[in-house]
Amino acid sequence: MSSRFLPRTFYRVVNCSENIKGRGCPIQLSPKSLNRYQFPRAMANVSGRERKLLTMDNLNPCVKSMEYVLSGPLVTRAAAIEKELEQGAKKPFKEVINAVTGDRQAMGQPPITFTRQVLALVSYPELIKYSNFPDDVKERATFLLTGCSGGSTGSYSEASGVEIVRRRVAEFIEERDGFSSNWQDIILCAGASTGIKAVLKLLDCETSGLKTGVMVPIPHYPLFPAVIAEFNNMQQMNYYLDESNGWAISIKELKRALNDTKGTCKPRALVVVNPGNPTGQVLTKNTIREIINFAYEEGLFLIADEVHQQNIYDNNSEFHSFKKVLMEMGLPYSKMELASFMSSSKGYMGECGMRGGYAEVINLQSGVKAMYLKSISANLCSTVLGQIAMDCVVKPPEPGGSSYKLFVREKNSILKMLTENAKIAVNAFNSIEGMSCNAVQGAVYAFPQIYLPSNAIETAKQKQMHPDEYYASQLLENAGISIVPGSGFGQKDGTYHFRTTILLPSAKLKAMLQILRKFHEDFLKKQQ
Amino acid sequence: MSSRFLPRTFYRVVNCSENIKGRGCPIQLSPKSLNRYQFPRAMANVSGRERKLLTMDNLNPCVKSMEYVLSGPLVTRAAAIEKELEQGAKKPFKEVINAVTGDRQAMGQPPITFTRQVLALVSYPELIKYSNFPDDVKERATFLLTGCSGGSTGSYSEASGVEIVRRRVAEFIEERDGFSSNWQDIILCAGASTGIKAVLKLLDCETSGLKTGVMVPIPHYPLFPAVIAEFNNMQQMNYYLDESNGWAISIKELKRALNDTKGTCKPRALVVVNPGNPTGQVLTKNTIREIINFAYEEGLFLIADEVHQQNIYDNNSEFHSFKKVLMEMGLPYSKMELASFMSSSKGYMGECGMRGGYAEVINLQSGVKAMYLKSISANLCSTVLGQIAMDCVVKPPEPGGSSYKLFVREKNSILKMLTENAKIAVNAFNSIEGMSCNAVQGAVYAFPQIYLPSNAIETAKQKQMHPDEYYASQLLENAGISIVPGSGFGQKDGTYHFRTTILLPSAKLKAMLQILRKFHEDFLKKQQ
Prior knowledge:
The structure is a homodimer.
Chain A: H1 31-38, H2 61-65, H3 73-86, E1 97-98, H4 113-123, H5 126-130, H6 135-146, H7 163-177, E2 186-189, H8 191-202, E3 212-218, H9 223-230, E4 234-240, H10 251-260, E5 266-273, H11 285-298, E6 301-305, H12 322-329, E7 338-343, E8 357-362, H13 366-377, H14 384-394, H15 404-431, E9 435-436, E10 445-446, E11 449-450, H16 454-462, H17 467-479, E12 481-482, E13 484-485, E14 498-501, H18 506-527
Parallel strand pairs in A: 1-12, 3-4, 3-5, 5-6, 6-7
Antiparallel strand pairs in A: 2-8, 7-8, 9-11, 10-14, 13-14
Helix pairs in contact in A: 4-6, 4-14, 7-14, 8-9, 11-12, 15-18, 16-17
């Protein structure tokens, strides 16, 4: 954030023992109480100034081991460099280009007007009466408010979400798949992350002395290992996506992963991310069918991260939900337990800050379902405005409605740009010496492989960094480009990658790719 | 929600195997694949229709044991009765009066205009340019947008929240306490609940073979036992509030609780709720000082739930934050680790659905602080609009601003009503035979004790219900009043209570108390 917007007081040096207003000065203690305060039992051998109750030794070990690359040191460093630039520091670049997150609006892209107008009206319903917003916006806002307790977005919803929004999500799924969806299987959550966590939590259980094994793709969206690490009785089982085959999932590799961990844990769940993050592949219906059959044979609970389902660029690719394929396969597959996740953050809507999302969890045993609902209830509910953002994602303006034309124009222009960006990025990476990149069929990232010369790898080792982490830090420090090293997502040993978002406006993306090409060439030269 | 707003499709009987659009019919399988699909290994001895992977036997045991009364069977039953009434069912009452939650707006009370206007403008910034909202609303919205990535509330904030909002929270605390607050100690969270969970999680650790003991008041806000139960290595230690002394906390009782659990766990944290929920007491500065000294002597991490700090009704009571008293006491106390929590839900603002809240966590060891920030980062961030609601709580309109007069009028009328309601409720309960209630000095609940005759207790036992749960269910079924039985908050054995909110509009509260009086008298008669 630009510092010029901060009142001067923001810069006051903060000192916790300082009494800034001369009020609340230390209490006067009687000799007796002084005595009591000054020689407390637990103080016998320690200095009060130094004593800490919570230390690295008695901190929750799961918190210690958990890693999350998207908030790692490089991201922090990029923010620091931005501030240095604001304060006039001289760098070989004028701005930091942030290509880290799948955050459309952070990249300066405008939101969908309809969603924001609805949010404005449900936040301040006076606007429904006294403003000239489009009719369908007013109707939507009015309808949604009828679903909120006391007719207000300021009241709690049920823990599982506002009923009419859950029903609309179910209708969206029915429209998408051609199979019915029970609105009571829909749980609205604050972005997909909290939904995924709540479902994995149910599986965090030691069975016959073994931890719960959860199969996770490599490379993967870092949320999964982060969440798994936070649970005491859960173990990650890696299966590798086939880079030489467009990051495909092969049953052979799934079986390999299962066999290699035999005896070390009890495999209970299989995580699939489709479209892929960071890899951008879109699974074929046949692959999904094989995965479902594998999960069925091996008795694995299916967890499908499908948050990028509305971002498909490749003409030959189509999104097929696991739910749909499960239903198409009929019994016994159609009775399998499946949790699939969607978000308001990742589609063309790109409303990350609103924290809208849903989980569709099907075929749960009724008792387990009750426990699941109970376990989310202590959080009260997800943000009601986020739920309303989700409503706008699953029920966009309809033909004939006064917002329809604008919505279609906005949606198409975003998807057109992303389709172009996907090609621009992939072509650029494949045209740079020592880089190669699979097609980005969907999602909002490219994940190129980079060739790193042996002395670069050596230098990295000396600095105790992953080689691609070293590469990323050099790219940041020398060219001002902030991307995420592949090591944060997992990759085959001896291969190096990075993830970049393709959400930047096309012109900026092209500029970034130019800078990156130059940097990479210089980097390779330097290493010779 | 009234059913008349639902499209007919909402009523379609949902059947997961039904193919509602004739599309996506089951795939045709070749004999070979049929063979493969029909005799999967794991299927040898089980029927696919019946098989469940996630059962009550292999479900996370912490999820099973966790209880949360505010979403318990009575709350579910109340909602069901509401629907029955909507559908024309005949009952001895015309409506269900919901006195369960501390949710101002669910009770039909209007929000603070300023907050909602700001939310509308940051949701749809066009309104800043082209509308005649008050200047200070426009200025606030403009300022807050400068703190959001890409100038939009639709982008992620840092996991700890939007920096300028965190800085404003720190200024609010400085104003409140007269001691400085470091904005980097402020974590914005989705309501206090998620903040409390994130801090307790740090303490979820087995030390020298013992679980972490967390001291919790009885009666308590049910979130605490619910969260503690979810952690594998945490044990609840109960200390009782003194009902005969206005629900006061005595050091003698804290010591008793500590001694009684010696050897069963490692006491590491002390939870204090001030003002009290469900008990409504406000701690004196002297009591807080004694509690701090106790925590210091016993080496307990202080956790202060202070979400009701802006709801004080008793002229002789004043809110003192633990942070302030800690600082007043000076060294070594001013270096103690403390986490205190605030929310946008519970004050006169009452914006529950927005999910705004903050944690101020002071004096953490730097390494631990880093781990804390890392551990919340995988959730990306709390809702940005909720953070903005929090900004309006800590920085309401200022004198001279165009929204100031209206804000003061709205705020005062709410607090005036709550002050009256607190008296109305307490007086009513104390005037009903077989009921007694301590003064409600703060917060938004009354927690009367009810006398239950022995045969009522007997009947309850036969129905395998807590006696006050039985009383609450009778009150709901026969009088349509929905309250929460005391057993859900914990209480001394042999005593019975219930919690009612005082947030109902005064007229409705009076009506409810009339009905309740009549029900109670009849109930006692019936039992004789």
